[in-house]
Write a structure and sequence with these properties.
Blueprint: H1 8-21, H2 32-37, E1 45-49, H3 55-62, E2 66-71, H4 74-87, E3 91-95, H5 98-107, E4 112-118, H6 124-135, E5 138-149, E6 178-188, E7 194-203
Parallel strand pairs: 1-2, 1-4, 2-3, 4-5
Antiparallel strand pairs: 5-7, 6-7
Length: about 200
């Protein structure tokens, strides 16, 4: 199958421009569901794929996770580094295509205790591959957290393109992991506007 994914340079330029034009594109608070899910999880290593301005990565670092933030945008990750420095936190930032990062990590047998995919706007034909490669980074006893804008949010929150919105079936099958929760959630998303999201919490037992 031929990939419909835009070239890395194109994606990076688009997000660099967006992050450069606004002080804060996304809200500051971490995702509420992630916070709740991690209440009883032992702190370890975490990777935030498509970290953006780093709201989840920064919160994880505050909770003493060893955090790697990966994103296409140099401008976005520069914000993450600045916010981390101002807060006295340590976060490793890597400017790279997340597909390339996961392939490189798997080749070097690098794994994480927590893999986060929050609100990545990927097309339908890329989702199964993205979930598979993200799952491949989850180490023994580790978890995968995925959250995305649901189709019910069309015209309310998230991208205006229905092709970038998710339904439960898009997150239902993750190779090698045990699905623990797959649910809808209604409330503030990546921005303050309330909408409907779908999230997956899966583990490698």
């Amino acid at each position: 199958m031929t990939s419909s994914r835009p070239a890395f340079q194109e994606v990076a330029a688009q997000w660099d421009e967006r992050y450069r034009d606004q002080d804060r594109v996304w809200r500051v608070e971490p995702n509420e569901i992630l916070v709740d899910l991690l209440r009883d999880v032992t702190v370890g290593s975490a990777v935030d794929l498509g970290a953006g301005e780093g709201r989840n990565a920064l919160w994880l670092a505050q909770q003493h996770w060893h955090v790697t933030a990966v994103d296409a945008s140099t401008v976005g990750l520069a914000k993450v580094a600045r916010y981390a420095e101002e807060a006295g936190l340590s976060i490793e930032t890597i400017v790279e295509d997340i597909w390339a990062f996961t392939a490189r990590s798997q080749a070097s047998k690098t794994s994480f205790d927590l893999v986060v995919l929050a609100y990545l706007q990927v097309s339908k034909d890329e989702r199964a591959e993205l979930l598979e490669i993200a799952a491949g980074l989850v180490g023994p006893g580790g978890h995968l957290f995925v959250i995305a804008h649901h189709m019910d949010s069309l015209g309310i929150s998230g991208p205006p393109d229905a092709e970038r919105l998710f339904v439960e079936a898009d997150l239902a099958a993750v190779p090698g992991l045990t699905q623990e929760r797959l649910e809808l959630w209604r409330g503030p998303s990546d921005q303050a506007v309330s909408g409907t999201d779908v999230f997956l919490w899966a583990a490698r037992h």
